[in-house]
Amino acid sequence: MTNTPLSREELFDYLDSADNATGLDPVAGHGFLTATVVGKPLPNWLSAFFEYQDADVPQNVKDALVVWQKELYDTLKAEEPIELPFDPSEEEADFSEEGDLSAWAVGFVDAMYADENIDWFDDPETEEDVATLTLPMIVLSGIDEELDDMRHDEEMLAQLANALEENVTELFLLFHTED
Predict the structure, then answer these.
(1) How does pLDDT run across 117-166, given as a tens digit for each residue?
(2) Of 75, 91, 90, the residue nearest 34 (C-alpha)
(3) Using one digit for the tens of pLDDT, what is the confidence trace for 81-105?
(4) Which residue from 24, 36, 82, 163 puts its CA 20 to 30 A from 68's CA?
């Protein structure tokens, strides 16, 4: 492979391939990168993306992930919403653990908790806002068994899914602006 970053299509092909033994797929990857952009800085995000097994990952794959992350950041910095890799308003949304909504949310939550030294909830002034804004990601990911009852309410799941785009923007503003 060359040292030129992969195109997005080539990156997605790699992330969906058997060569990507430890990394996230494109949808979970989008969620992960989104969290690294909107939340507290995650210094080792690239390594965390591959479960700290990134030594054998080709450099052009890593470079393409850096480019993708920067595009997400630039979108939010320009006060534009991030386009999610699925349509959360679809009437037939797949809320199962195998669906894109769940995969995206798992990627997002993975980045939130990728470093035990980085706590999104450690500021008493923003703790409640962070909890409210990340609730859809936590519920849709299915990682918190205490919230499993919510995962059986399709109407509630649809509301949470429809809040994702706005919540991502609000989290970005919360962590990246002064007020």
Answers:
(1) 999 999 999 999 999 999 999 999 988 877 777 777 888 888 999 999 99
(2) 75
(3) 999 998 877 766 788 888 899 999 9
(4) 163
- Give one DSSP letter per residue of the chain, joined into a string: --SSPPPHHHHHHHHTSTT-SSSPPHHHHHHHHHHHHHSS--TTHHHHHTTT--TTS-HHHHHHHHHHHHHHHHHHHTT-PPPPSS-TT-TT---STTSHHHHHHHHHHHHHTS-TT--TT--TTTHHHHHHHHHHHHHHHT--GGGGGGGG-HHHHHHHHHHHHHHHHHHHHHHHS--
* The pair of three-digit structure tokens given for residue 165, joined into one six-digit string: 């785009």
**What pLDDT, in 10s, does the model give residues 43-56?**
999 999 999 999 99
As a whole number of angstroms, the distance between CA 34 and CA 40 comes to: 11
Contact 32, 111 (CB under 8 A): yes
Evaluate if pTM is beyond 0.90. Answer: yes
Shortest CA distance to 66 belongs to which of 84, 45, 51? 45
